[in-house]
Design a protein that fits this description.
The protein has a single domain, classed as Ribosomal protein L30/S12 (60s Ribosomal Protein L30, Chain: A), CATH 3.30.1330. Helix content is 49%, strand content 15%. It is of the alpha/beta class. The relative contact order is 0.22. It contains five helices and five strands, in the order H-E-H-E-H-E-H-E-H-E. A five-stranded mixed β-sheet has the order 1-4-2-3-5, with helices on both faces. Interacts with GADD45GIP1. It comes from Homo sapiens. This is Growth arrest and DNA damage-inducible protein GADD45 beta.
């Protein structure tokens, strides 16, 4: 491995850490400001009613759920809708960390009582020009990924 390749790998890892931290910061801020829609069904309803208010779509899934055909169909439809409406999309793994960030009670995680965290929408109402550092960072990452022909970038949330 050449020095340039080594530096590029290090930069990519550092960029991934920065984007992951930005996503975490963004989710917490969006939830605090009531700008977060949680759940596949709830997200589909919002995108049907007001797609212009959606600025980011997070599709969350862990490896053990990859074989869930119904969930994959939902994701495909949501991704298509997001692409048609110029909404940034990020695939996320680390459902436990996601639940932790959103304040899900530990006893409900993985049960039927737990909220559906597979699809999260961050909204920005038309009357408000909300900008957060996290949103800018994630949008930049999405744009950069599209430039590299990775239409749905992927990040992994690490448990803490």
């Amino acid at each position: 491995m050449t020095l340039e390749e080594l530096v590029a790998c290090d930069n990519a890892a550092q960029k991934m850490q920065t984007v992951t931290a930005a996503v975490e910061e963004l989710l917490v801020a969006a939830q605090r400001q009531d700008r977060l829609t949680v759940g596949v069904y709830e997200s589909a309803k919002l995108m049907n009613v007001d797609p212009d208010s959606v600025v980011l779509c997070l599709l969350a899934i862990d490896e053990e759920e990859e074989d869930d055909i119904a969930l994959q169909i939902h994701f495909t439809l949501i991704q298509s809708f997001c692409c048609d409406n110029d909404i940034n999309i990020v695939r996320v793994s680390g459902m436990q960390r996601l639940a932790q960030l959103l304040g899900e009670p530990a006893e409900t995680q993985g049960t039927t009582e737990a909220r559906d965290l597979h699809c999260l929408l961050v909204t920005n109402p038309h009357t408000d020009a909300w900008k957060s550092h996290g949103l800018v960072e994630v949008a930049s990452y999405c744009e950069e990924s599209r430039g590299n022909n990775q239409w749905v970038p992927y990040i992994s949330l690490q448990e803490r």
